[in-house]
Every structure is written in C-alpha cells, then in structure tokens.
Amino acid sequence: MGDPQSPVAGTDGSGPTTGQDRTAGASARTATVTTDSRPPDEHGLGGGGALPRRRAFGAERAFQGLTLTAGLTVLAIIVAIAGFLIAKAVPALGANTANFFTFNGWFPNDAQPRFGIGALAFGTVLSSALALLLAVPVSLGIALYLSHYAPRRLGNALGFLIDLLAAVPSVVFGLWGRDILSGPVRDFSGWLHAHVGWLPFFAGDGPYGSSMLLAALVLAIMVLPIITSLSREVFRQTPQANQEAALALGATKWEMIRTTVLPYGKPGVIAAVMLGLGRALGETIALAMTLGITFTISADLITNGGNTIAANIANAFGEANDVGRGALIASGLVLFAITLLVNIAARAIIHRRREFRETAA
Amino acid sequence: MSTDTLTRPAPTTDTDLRARRLPRYAVPALALAALAVAVAVVRPGDNGGLVLAGAFAGLLHLAGLFAAATAVEGRRRATDRTFSALIHSAFLLAVLPLLSVVWTLVQKGSARLDANFFGTSMNNIGPRDAIGGAYHAIVGTLMQVGVATLITVPLGIAAAIYIVEYGRGRLAATIRFFVDVMTGIPSIVAGLFVLAFWVLVVSPVFNDGRPGFSGFAAALALSVLMLPTIVRSTEEMLRLVPAPLREGAYALGVPKWKTILQVVLPTAAPGIVTGVMLSVARAAGETAPVLLVAGGGAAINFNPFQESQSSLALFVYQQAGDASRYAPDRAWTAALTLVALVLLLTVTAKLLARRNPLSR
Lengths: 361, 360
What we know:
The complex is a heterodimer of chains A (about 350) and B (about 350). With about 350 residues, chain A is mainly α. Chain A folds into two domains: about 5-80, no CATH class; about 115-360, MetI-like (MetI-like fold). Chain A is built from twelve helices and two strands. Chain A has a two-stranded antiparallel sheet. In chain A, a hairpin with a 6-residue loop joins strand 1 (about 105) and strand 2. The radius of gyration of chain A is 27 Å and the shape is flat. Chain A starts with 5 loop residues before the first helix and ends with a helix. In chain A, about 50% of the residues are buried. Chain B is mainly α and about 350 residues long. Chain B has two domains: about 5-110, no CATH class; about 135-355, MetI-like (MetI-like fold, Orthogonal Bundle), CATH 1.10.3720. Chain B contains 14 helices and no strands. Chain B has helices at about 5, 25-40, 45-75, 75-110, 115-120, 135-165, 170-185, 185-200, 215-240, 245-250, 255-285, 290-295, 310-320, 325-355. In chain B, helix 6 packs parallel to helix 9, helix 11 (about 255-285) packs antiparallel against helix 14 and helix 13 packs antiparallel against helix 14. The model of chain B is unreliable at about 1-5 (pLDDT under 50). Chains A and B meet through helix 2, helix 3, helix 4, helix 5 and helix 6 of A and helix 3, helix 4, helix 6, helix 7 and helix 8 of B.
C-alpha cells in the first residue's frame, strides 16, 4: 500500500501468502530483513562492528528453535489427526460386510458388521443446506440492518448482542430446540401437511416434531451469528464514495445497496456462508438432541427422523464396541474430508478478496 | 447489469416534482389489517398457532405494503419500502429466538438454583431423587479447560511468534494455511482424534491396557480446538504492534528474542488475553469431544489423569437424555450456569478488546 518497504517484504513471502500481509505485517517483515542483513559488519561498514556476533548456540537460536517447534506442532497435529483416524478406520472398514457408501443402516456391533454412510451423509448435507437456505437471507438482512439501517450506536450494541449469540454453547440450543421450539414446529408441520401436503417435502403424515425441519431451524439459528457478523464487516467497508455517488444519481436506499454494497460485499458474503456451512456440517450435539434418529433417505422434512454423521457419532458411541468405534471413526473421517474441502474453498475466496482489496486501495 | 437501473428514465408516476407519498398512518393501519386477516384465517388456539398467525400477518403486511406503495408512490419507492421492511423484519426474526432462549434459560434454569445443585454430584442419585447437582461437572469443566489452556497458550503464542517474527517462505505459509484448516475442524472430529490417539492407543500403556477415558483426554481434545483460534488472534495482534517499537529496541542493541519477549509481547498482551478468553469460552461450551473421551462419570473427581470426569456441557446433555422427572430441571439449571460462565468470559474479553489501544 503506501508503505515504501512493501516490495522488500513481498519478496520473501512466496506464492499465495503475499497478498495476505497487511501493512503492519509488512513492516514486521521489514524489521526481520534489517536484522538479518547483518553480515556486512565484517566489512566494517558503519557502527556494525560494535554489534554482537551471531552465535551458533545462544538465546536467540534457542528461542527461534522453540517457536519453530511450536509451529511445526500444528503441522504434526494435522498429520496426526488424519493418520490416527485412518489407522483406526481401516480395520473396521475391512470388517464391514456391506457397502460403506451405499448401505443404509448402522449395525457395526453385530457379529457380521454392516454399516453405511449413505443416509448419514445425505442427512448431513440436507440439514446444512436447509439451515443455510433459512439463515442466509435472514442474516444478510440483519447485517444490512446493522450496517446501513440502524442508528450507529444501536447498530454497534445489537452487533455485540449477535456476537454473544454466537458464544452460546450448542448444547443449550439443542435443549431449547427440543423442549421449546419442537412444539411450534409440530403445529407448523401439521399445518404444512394439511395445506401443501402434495409437495414431497411435506408428504409425511406424522408423528411430527423431532424432524429435519426442527433440526434445520435450530442449525439456522446457530449459523446465523457467524454469517451476520462477517457480512456486516464487509458491508461496512463499502467505500463511502460509491454509496454517495449512487444516492446522488437519485437511487433510493435499496437501489444504493443493490448497486454498491451488495456487489462490493459479494466475495465476503460467499466466504461467510461457506464458513457457516462448515459449522453446520460439523454440528453435533444440537442435532443429536433434535433429530429423531432414522436411517432413511427421503425428501420428507416434517416427519420424525433424519440423522447426520456427527449426530450419529454422539448417539451411537455409548454402545459401540471395537468395530463400532472404528466405524464411527470412519464416518468422522468422511466428515473431516467434507468440512476440509468446504473450509479450504472458503479460505481461498477470502484470500482472493484480500488481494483484490489491496490492489484496489 | 446492475447499473442500468440508475440510467433508466424515471417511471411516469414520478414526473411530479413532489412525488406522492403514503400517508403516515398507512403503515400501522396496514399492519393492523394484516393481523386481523391472519387471525381470522389461522384461528390461533395454542402456542404454535400464534407463531403461525404472526408469520402469516407479517407476509400479508409486506404484500399489502408493496401493493399500496406501488399504487401511490410508484414501483421504485415501493421496492425500497418493501426491502426496508424485509430487512427490519429479518432483524426481528433473529431477535425472537434469542429472547426465547434467554427467557427459557432464566425461567426454567432458576428451578434448581440452590446450594444443593452447586454442592453435590450425581453420585448415587437415583431416578426418584429430586436432589443431586452439578458440582462434579463444574469441577470437570474448570479442570479440563484449565489444563487445555495451560497446554495451548504457550504453544499457540510461540507458534504465532514463529509465523509473524521468524517464519518466512514456504514453511511459514504452510503453517499458516494449516492453522486456518484447523480452525474448521468439527469438534466431534477433534474428539474422535483424541479417542483414536490418546484413549485407545497411548493411555492403555499407563493404564494396564484399559482405554483411559479421563479429564486429561478431554483437555487434549479441547486443546486441538483452542489452538488455531489462539494462534490466529495472537498473530493478528503481533502484526498490529508498531514497527518503530521493534526498531527502537533493535537500535538500543537489544537482541531480537528479548525484543519479542519484553517489547512486542507486552504491547500485544491485552489483545492476546482477549483471544485466549474467547477461545476458553468456546471450549467450555463444547460437548461433543468431552462426550467421546472424558467418560462422563457421576462422581466428583479432582484428578484429570485418572478415572472419568464430566463437564457442565456434557452434564446438560446427559440430564436432557435422562428419563427421571427431575432431570429436565437439572439440565436447564446447568445450561443456565454454563451460559452464565461462557457469557461472562466473552463479555469480559470483548470489553477488554474495546480498551485495547492496538485495536484496528
């Protein structure tokens, strides 16, 4: 940006990180370069001769080694996660007498273990997609309200409240969903079935309550704060000049938002949605408490039933034997892979966004 | 495609210099009418019907508003009004569940807010006993989160120092990337990892071959979840430390490691503390990993390395699934305690962040 040293800092960050260094980081790198270009002191340039020699063993090296070890630990943990999960999953997968990807059911504790991820993966994707479908429009609305409609002080205070909503543990949402929300959802399901029952989603004729719909609603409430707070940040960063230009051309407030704020915030919003998706896919306890556990693949949203990979791990863990644990770990591995892909995609989008912002500034 | 709306000639209704506006009373009147129609159609008898009637009334109000505004003010202003109403109602829609959660927590959670709840465990409490509490779970939460913090804070800060101060090139980029990846690991996967690594493989060595479900295992799982958040927040804070501070120290002949420990870290300390507190709050509320590896015993256990432990979040889950008629009260009171603990940490952390001179 305005930092004259940034080309120097840019040379050492190879590949994709270059765009991520912000001004402060860039100058931190500059400081590194300054100290490390010390060797000229052999040539007696300036007062460099008075500086202590670089020692092979000493506090500096020890400290650097210590921090390097800590950094490498992060890599080691990731490798260990993948390694141990695979090591425990492979024997169970070998003992499986049914097809892991197509079988609908979970009987890994039998003498002839049979288990399959099909219905679970379907439930995971369906609940997350439904939750996003419900949460994204609402959270974008809230984000716009907080950034452009509410008075500034009120917007800040309410934004703080929304952030607190993100801190509420998922088990509390699960309990609330099961004890409080399931009543209205049961009534609503009955109403839906009576009036739009010809749609395959609402075809089930009861019992209602602990259904995919309830789970998706609870999940939507849980991902809402994540999407809201990130979107609000990007919406607030829309250049003031663009907004004023739109208004000066006679745009109404909504036209201003549609032509300046939304296009500017689009990559940020996409990234926020992906992060919300990552959270929704991995959510365990709230779903284990709100879904009525069944192993079926059906489009029916209102009848009791449904299951997800994570909820199944929490529910089936108690009575799992050795193969059972391996089977659960195998399903966890699938979940890990799915969330990994989603998160990497989200980070890639945020990444591109940062570069864009820096070149545009 | 989006800019051509601005260049399009104004609709004919706007030719008047002072465009006609909806009268002030129109919006509340429309709302009342919508509510009346909705109540007449849905006929709310019980709680769920009320919600349904409210939602229906909201939709009717929006449609009515759009129609009225189109007739009087023209298309563009009508769209503007509708979206403004939609955005406001989106906010209302999100506040409702929040209020409901808070209200239920306080109302149902106060049922067992007594000394017995905070002073006893669930050991030897049968389904017919009205007493029994969460003392063991509170002890478990504090110990697990405490041990996890002891593990993560030094590790996370050191890793962040490496990334910001020493790391360069491919290795630092890789570590950064995998910290990001780690942020997205579902908590249940962290639990499964500790199950596969510590409980089933490493701990049987010290435990006569039996799997070692323990508070320490839960602390390990929580560490996996806390580490990336702490690294990220510390990294952000270290980057915000002004370069002249570092350069001043270097100019005085202070070696780099001492500069980091005595100049950079103290400057960034408030921000780092905020990050740590937020991640502790998140870890305290985690249920899934604790469920898999802690064992969830009902007795008070002060030793995280031996025998099973419970935690507050796990206690809520256990009591919620319990058939005893006294269990729901215990679950809600434990949930209230947990939320109070988590929010206390979060609010303190955010207030600290506001007073942080380094904040952006």
